[in-house]
Amino acid sequence: MEDVPLHLYVDIEGSKESNPDKDLTAMFQEVIQELKLFLHQMDIAPAHNLDNIELIILDSSTSKKFSKHLVLKVPECQFKNNYICGALMRNFHAHLI
Fold this sequence. Notes:
Layout: E1 8-15, H1 24-41, H2 47-50, E2 54-59, E3 65-73, H3 82-96
Antiparallel strand pairs: 1-3, 2-3
């Protein structure tokens, strides 16, 4: 829906079979920390709000695939619409690369 405020959400997936030597759970935690830092650097939310983020993590992993769906509820911070969330995540992806 257009122009419906929402919290930031992220889907993170990876192949366990293609990455047997990687700790995908630890990498997931690193991505969360990097995303918090990125939100602060982009001045999306003040640091004290980022320290109080509520994370909702849904796990749909299988024996072959790592798959987590994450909702980040930052106090006093919602995004105007899905397009803005998408733009932020494209910037975050570029930041990681």
